[in-house]
Amino acid sequence: MDSISTKNATVYFNSDVYSELNDYINTTNPSKIFVLVDTNTHDYCLPKFLERLPTGDIIIEVMEIPNGEEHKTIDICTGVWEALSEYNADRKSLLINLGGGVVTDLGGFVASTYMRGIAYINMPTSLLAMVDASVGGKTGVDLGALKNQIGVINEGALVGIDTTFLDTLPQNEMVSGFAEMLKHGLIYNKEYWNILTHLEKLDISDLDRLIYDSVVIKNKVVTEDPGEKGLRKILNFGHTLGHAIESYFLENADKTPILHGEAVAIGMLLESYLSTKICGLSVKELDIINEGILKTFTKVNITKNDQKHIIDLLQYDKKNSHGIVKFVLLEAIGQPKLDCVVSNELILEAFDYYSN
Questions:
Q1: Do residue 59 and residue 146 come from a single domain?
Q2: Same domain, 154 and 214
Q3: Are residues 200 and 282 in the same domain?
C-alpha cells in the first residue's frame, strides 16, 4: 500500500514500515533510542519489533508502563520523564511508542514536552491506534477520569502501521477499534459505512484496505484543520456522550469499565437519535445506523441515576465554549453538522430511546 503524507509526517504500512523506520534512524542518527511499551506490548510485540530494528551502535532503552486507560495519567508521565532523565536522554534522542492508544497518546505527550520536545515515532499495535489515536498529532493524558484533558497537538516524525500486530489482540480490543472506523463512515463516506456494515461479504484479507481507508479519511480531515478550529471537530462524533460514558464507568468502583470504542458506539447511537430531533437525520437512516452498530456492539445497562451523572460530565468536553456543550450531529450519513446545542431533556430522551 502507498504511504500517506500527513501535514508534517508520513504514515507507512506493513512491508514499508521497517525499511522507512531504519532509513529515518540512519539519516537522523539519534543519540539514543527509547522504546515505550506497556505490559502487554512488552511481551507480545516488542521481541518482533526489536528483531527488525538494526541500529548499529545506537543505544536502545525500553521503558514499560502499566496497561490500561486508568494509567494514562500525569503520574505515569512523570515516571517516564524521570526515566528519560536517568538514562541521559538529550534533545537528539528518539522515542518510539509501541502500543495502543494509551501508549501513543501518552508517549507523544512525553516526547512533546521532554526538554521542550524530542522526536517521536508511533508504532500502533491496536486497531484503535492504527485508525485513530496514532494519526493526527493529538497527544495527552487524562485528568482523573476526564478523558484527554491535558495534552498538545504535535505530530511525530512518522507512523508505522504493521497490521500483523493485530494478531496479538483480544477480540474486544478489535471491536473497540472498529467503532472508530464506523465513525469515519458516518461522518465522511456513506459508501465506506456500507462496506463496514456488510463485512460478511468480505474476508480477513480486506482488513488492511479498510484500515488504510480509515487513515485516509482521518488524514484528509486533519490536514485541512490541524488545530481543530472547525472541520476536525467532526472526528468527535459519538465522543461527546461517549467520553462522558467512558469516564463515568471508569471512575465508579461499582461499574465495570468499558473500552473507548464501546463507549463511542453508545455515543454514536445516542447522538444519531439527537440528530433526528435537531438536524433532520431521517428515521430510516437512524434505523440503518442502529442496525449497523448493534451488529457488533451489545447494549450496556445505563440507569436513570447513571444518566444524570453522565450529563454532569458533559461540562468537561473540550468542544465546549462559554459554558455551552457543543455536539457534532448528522444531517445524513456522511453529512455531519458542527456546534449543535442540545438540551438535557433531549439527552435523557436519547437515553430512553437507547434503552428501549
A1: yes
A2: no
A3: yes
**Residue of 148, 156, 155, 157 lying closest to 222 (CA atoms):** 155
When pLDDT is averaged across residues 264-285 and rounded to a whole number, the result is 98
CA distances for 234 relative to 187, 212, 286, 338, angstroms = 7, 19, 18, 7
* Closest to 14 (Cα-Cα) out of 197, 167, 182: 167
DSSP 170-224: -HHHHHHHHHHHHHHHHHH-HHHHHHHTTGGGS-GGGHHHHHHHHHHHHHHHHHH
Among 97, 334, 296, 105, CA closest to 217: 334
109, 240: one domain: no
- CATH number of the domain to which 66 belongs: 3.40.50.1970
As a whole number of angstroms, the distance between CA 280 and CA 118 comes to 47
Query: Looking at the annotation, which residues are catalytic?
Result: 116, 138, 180, 218, 228, 232, 236, 239, 243, 260
Lowest mean pLDDT across 49-53, 161-165, 202-206: 202-206
CA 238 to chain centre: 13
pLDDT at 203: 66
pLDDT tens-digit series, residues 90-137: 999 999 999 999 999 999 999 999 999 999 999 999 999 999 988 899
Q: pLDDT tens-digit profile of 6-57?
A: 988 999 999 899 999 999 999 999 999 999 999 999 999 999 999 998 777 8
What is the DSSP code (8-state) at residue 77?
H
Residues 86 and 207 grouped into a single domain: no
Please name every residue paired with 123 in a beta bridge, in sequence order, or none if there are none. 98
Report the first-to-last Cα separation within the chain, whole angstroms. Answer: 44
